[in-house]
Amino acid sequence: MKNWLHTIQQNKRLQAIIVGLYIVVTFFSLYLAQKSVVAFLLLLSSLLLLYFTTFSNRVKWLIGGVVMVVLLPLAASQGEAYQSYMEVATLVGIYIAMALGLNIVVGMAGLLDLGFVAFFALGAYTYGIFATGQANNFMPFGHYPLSGESFWVFIFIGCFVAALFGILLGVPVLRVKGDYLAIVTLGFGEIIRIIFNNLDKPVNITNGAMGLASVQPPRLFGIDFMYPSQFYYIVLVILITVIFAVRRLEFSKIGRAWKAVRENEIAAQAMGIHLVKTKLMAFAVGASFSGMMGVVFAAKQTFVDPTSFTLLESITILVMVILGGMGSVPGVILGAALVTILNLQVLTELTNWLNQLSLNGVINVPDALSPAKMQRFIFGVILILFALYRPQGLLPAKNPVFDEKELKDADKLVNAGVQKEVPQNVHLDS
Amino acid sequence: MVLKKTLSILATTTLAVGILAGCSGGQKNDTANNGGNGGGGGGSNVIKIATQTPLSGGSATLGESIKLGAQLALEEQQANFEKLGFKLELVPYDDQGDPKKGVANAQLIGADKQVFGVVGHLNSGVAIPSSEIYEKYSIPMVSPANTATDVTDRGLKTVNRICARDDFQGPAGAKFAVEKLGAKKIFIIQDKTAYGTGLAEAFKKGAEELGAQILGFEGITVGEKDFNGVLNQVLAKKPDLIYFGGLYTEGGLLIKQARDKGITVPIMGGDGLDSSTLVQIAGDAVKNTYMTSAAGLTTVTDAGKQFAEKYKQKFGKEIESYSAYGYDAMGVLLKGLENAIKANGNKLPTRQQVAEEVRKVQDYQGVVTKVSFDEKGDNKYAKIYIYKFDEAKYPAKLEDEVSKQ
Amino acid sequence: MINEVLHTLPQVLIDGLTLGAVYAIVALGYTMVYGILELINFAHGEIFMTGAFVGTAILLTFAGFGWLASMPALVALVLVLVVTSVVTGLLGMGIERVAYRPLRNAPKLITLITAIGVSFLLQDIVRFIAELKNGNYILTGPSLFSGQIGIKASSISSIFNDASVKSSFFIVLIVAVIMMVTLDFFVNKTKWGMAMRAVAQDRETAALMSVNVNKVIALTFFIGSALGGATGVLFAIQYGTIDPYIGFILGLKAFTAAVLGGIGNIRGAMFGGILLGVMEMFAAANLPVVSHGVLGAEYKDVFAFAILIIVLIFKPEGLFGKVSVEKV
């Protein structure tokens, strides 16, 4: 097994053949199948296979892009379950972006935030309030709802509002550490939800528990975005931007500062890292991803109410990060995809199947055991098992490896007074 | 390094395989269904009707009862549709009382070409966003229990309901409270959910119009067990009636704790209290509690008694208030479906045709209510029933009924 | 306005004391575990919830056999309390053995995540069992002490309204006080208590002094969880209806109480619990009065969380805690 894997790892041509074959086969199986969840998932997992190859990053992105942008929608569009697949894919995208945001806070900066969904709620409400008639109640100028064209601007506004709140929340919270921080953020998350639920008095801002119905769909060139298959592209664009940003941040100065703070605050401080600034940056960046996706979520659901932003939601995002691997970008992407698909497709399908069986009188499963209700159980088991046996997650984070000898040589050159570009042979694993 | 990599690959593949296995479970079911009807035709003569109600969570009792009622109606009609050459199937979905889940399920329902109708939901907060999706796919939805005004006020073609609206239920309750019970000073408590707030607001408006004085309009949190804080306010204000907009779990505890505190004034609530669990929770304290309900007392009529017996025989449970409404909602839906099939020359109709036919249904005689939809999808014959609990026994005693006309 | 507040004061105090007593004992569990392991046992609220369910299940079984009617209520109560506290105590020990002990030297973050996992697991297992047995996870137990006692507060001063008390209030209070006093005695006056305090101060040194650290930690979990479970029973008796999700928010508030009194400090936790209970009740009854209807009673949870956050930010050592200096 090991030898075999090793051969494959050495041989790029072999890899290309395997990946290419896999993609073609799964593409056609989804294209020809009327409705097959398996084929859909297999096609998605081609991206995972791609991750394990040793192609250069550019090639990986290119192939991945083709699969995501062209092949997946094209293959799914033949079947009747097109929209529901796209709905799942869209939600997966939304959750991946949120999990990447939380990953910056938890995985990279080591600050456990249990109220992360609050930023998502902020984004959703930002768009929801102005894209329904709600804003008429307190805005002295303009008349609402704003047209769907404003959606594109709101993506940035949502991003900004969430980041701002991330900083505001961060300023007091950062005085506490570790476990206390987790509890405080949890408290803040709940406070924000309760406040949204009660802001219908004395001035009706959020419409309280009634929620905001009939949110304007986004418009572009006169086309209304109504279906998941259209939202899929919006999410994809944002997601690719987010992934790009995260990768850049991870290996930047601030990214290294986050990791230093995670490993040891006091030592990091001693090395001249500005603690408060570093932590606030983590909060702001993490929150901004959530805020953006919140705006998209509000537009997609066309209905925003406080029940979508519970603690369970925050924990779900945490589970994604833990499952994938704290601090590992590809890991978190995988974790988010797995958990979302599990929640939306697998549990529902399983429950339906069991229901069918009990209706046809094959076996009798008690209702209490229906898989759709087992969410908490499954999350609990995942958290415990991974914390005990695999704290680094499915795809552990890797730090860049620096070649010591080259650095030393470069150092010698610099010391000798030779001004020259230092070739930093950094081998990045993506 | 290699070992670690192998390990991680192994871990991922096992997870992926596990998930796939789960899905192929879902797959098998499809193939089994297709195989089940003679292999040919790819299952084109199977018609599925979905239900979406909370089967887990705090209001599972009510959600479950709607599902079971609908199931009973569907099974009774199966033979009838066999004659037309179609096989009826029920696909129950669990919306968990969560809008997000409801919408995701609605997408699944919409994607399943064999589904021709939905019976649901229980919570208006879930029904509103989900129905936007049904509208896109033009799947007719018949709601047994959604009382919020927004459900039909958005003018969707596919959305119908057989129960009364909040802006009818609230004022009807207020009228009864002010005129029959002589309440002049009323304290309103609500549970800060879409349902509770909407109903409490409607009641407040109705009561104020009738000249009653509202002493307080307070919120509680769902899932809480200690309502002494709010009740202390009630004690201080001394109202002559308490109105509660919310569900039976909180309602039962509220009633119990109010009586423990020595608050003896009548307590009134909406159809969310209408469940046997309320009596279980409140016990003897439930005396002198009134509730308005969109659900009629099933067991008053002979048809209703028969239904209750059938239900008990089949599921081994007593009926709940909305069981018969689930049954009737399914009945109306199937009636529309049947009309659509016949109008289409006994061939499979489109969803659009079914939705139109459902909206056209007139004077359908159900177990608890007659059904005729108006142009918005509201039921012309919907009534509000007012019940009183004199003892710790469910169902309560029928006091009064108010109809629209 | 002041008058209005004073009118209801006696009743508010009584309700606040009941709630506060529950918070106080649950807070003890948090404080003991934190004192000894520096770990927030997230699952403690769920242990409380499990206790409530176990207690109610026993009571329902008794009622089913018709034994409840034939024995005095107090005997039944003591029986249920003892059985429940043993069960939940063992549960707590088990959780520590399986989920926390292997991670004793792991980063804090990981242990906290396990704790969250355990709490979710417990919630769902209890829900599952309750639903299987009952068809519905909302459980209503038989009422044991439902007598009413009126307190003529108006005879003290005409500004007070009369208050009424359920007899279960006294039961809750008395049992709570007994538990707290016993625990205080145990920790401060017995050999095992001394071992506990030693481990809390310095685990390695205590081990060198021939204290069996593992045993002491297991015992701490046992006691904390037993108290939590017993409180669950008291809660079920006082409020009658329980569901699998009561532990979470109550646990959070009890933790707030522990922090308020100074985490790691047993007497502080008791005081913090009572204080928080009274404050929360006061807020729920008087927020609308004081803010002229802008802030309703539904803000009382926000109020509790706000206290938690303010204390943690400005005085993390709480009212009676010791300031700790972090070393590298």
TrEMBL record, chain A:
<protein>
    <submittedName>
        <fullName>Branched-chain amino acid transport system / permease component family protein</fullName>
    </submittedName>
</protein>
<feature type="transmembrane region" description="Helical">
    <location>
        <begin position="37"/>
        <end position="54"/>
    </location>
</feature>
<feature type="transmembrane region" description="Helical">
    <location>
        <begin position="374"/>
        <end position="389"/>
    </location>
</feature>
<dbReference type="GO" id="GO:0015658">
    <property type="term" value="F:branched-chain amino acid transmembrane transporter activity"/>
</dbReference>
<feature type="transmembrane region" description="Helical">
    <location>
        <begin position="61"/>
        <end position="79"/>
    </location>
</feature>
<feature type="transmembrane region" description="Helical">
    <location>
        <begin position="12"/>
        <end position="31"/>
    </location>
</feature>
<feature type="transmembrane region" description="Helical">
    <location>
        <begin position="85"/>
        <end position="106"/>
    </location>
</feature>
<keyword id="KW-0812">Transmembrane</keyword>
<feature type="transmembrane region" description="Helical">
    <location>
        <begin position="150"/>
        <end position="171"/>
    </location>
</feature>
<feature type="transmembrane region" description="Helical">
    <location>
        <begin position="231"/>
        <end position="249"/>
    </location>
</feature>
<dbReference type="InterPro" id="IPR001851">
    <property type="entry name" value="ABC_transp_permease"/>
</dbReference>
<dbReference type="Pfam" id="PF02653">
    <property type="entry name" value="BPD_transp_2"/>
</dbReference>
<feature type="transmembrane region" description="Helical">
    <location>
        <begin position="280"/>
        <end position="300"/>
    </location>
</feature>
<dbReference type="InterPro" id="IPR043428">
    <property type="entry name" value="LivM-like"/>
</dbReference>
<keyword id="KW-1003">Cell membrane</keyword>
From TrEMBL, chain B:
<feature type="domain" description="Leucine-binding protein">
    <location>
        <begin position="47"/>
        <end position="390"/>
    </location>
</feature>
<comment type="similarity">
    <text>Belongs to the leucine-binding protein family.</text>
</comment>
<keyword id="KW-0813">Transport</keyword>
<dbReference type="GO" id="GO:0006865">
    <property type="term" value="P:amino acid transport"/>
</dbReference>
<feature type="signal peptide">
    <location>
        <begin position="1"/>
        <end position="21"/>
    </location>
</feature>
<dbReference type="InterPro" id="IPR028082">
    <property type="entry name" value="Peripla_BP_I"/>
</dbReference>
<dbReference type="Pfam" id="PF13458">
    <property type="entry name" value="Peripla_BP_6"/>
</dbReference>
<keyword id="KW-0675">Receptor</keyword>
<keyword id="KW-0029">Amino-acid transport</keyword>
<protein>
    <submittedName>
        <fullName>Receptor ligand binding region family protein</fullName>
    </submittedName>
</protein>
<keyword id="KW-0732">Signal</keyword>
<dbReference type="InterPro" id="IPR028081">
    <property type="entry name" value="Leu-bd"/>
</dbReference>
<dbReference type="InterPro" id="IPR000709">
    <property type="entry name" value="Leu_Ile_Val-bd"/>
</dbReference>
Automatic annotation (TrEMBL), chain C:
<dbReference type="GO" id="GO:0005886">
    <property type="term" value="C:plasma membrane"/>
</dbReference>
<keyword id="KW-0812">Transmembrane</keyword>
<keyword id="KW-0997">Cell inner membrane</keyword>
<keyword id="KW-0029">Amino-acid transport</keyword>
<dbReference type="GO" id="GO:0015808">
    <property type="term" value="P:L-alanine transport"/>
</dbReference>
<protein>
    <submittedName>
        <fullName>Branched-chain amino acid transport system / permease component family protein</fullName>
    </submittedName>
</protein>
<feature type="transmembrane region" description="Helical">
    <location>
        <begin position="168"/>
        <end position="187"/>
    </location>
</feature>
<dbReference type="GO" id="GO:1903806">
    <property type="term" value="P:L-isoleucine import across plasma membrane"/>
</dbReference>
<dbReference type="InterPro" id="IPR001851">
    <property type="entry name" value="ABC_transp_permease"/>
</dbReference>
<dbReference type="InterPro" id="IPR052157">
    <property type="entry name" value="BCAA_transport_permease"/>
</dbReference>
<feature type="transmembrane region" description="Helical">
    <location>
        <begin position="107"/>
        <end position="130"/>
    </location>
</feature>
<feature type="transmembrane region" description="Helical">
    <location>
        <begin position="74"/>
        <end position="95"/>
    </location>
</feature>
<feature type="transmembrane region" description="Helical">
    <location>
        <begin position="216"/>
        <end position="239"/>
    </location>
</feature>
<keyword id="KW-1133">Transmembrane helix</keyword>
<feature type="transmembrane region" description="Helical">
    <location>
        <begin position="245"/>
        <end position="263"/>
    </location>
</feature>
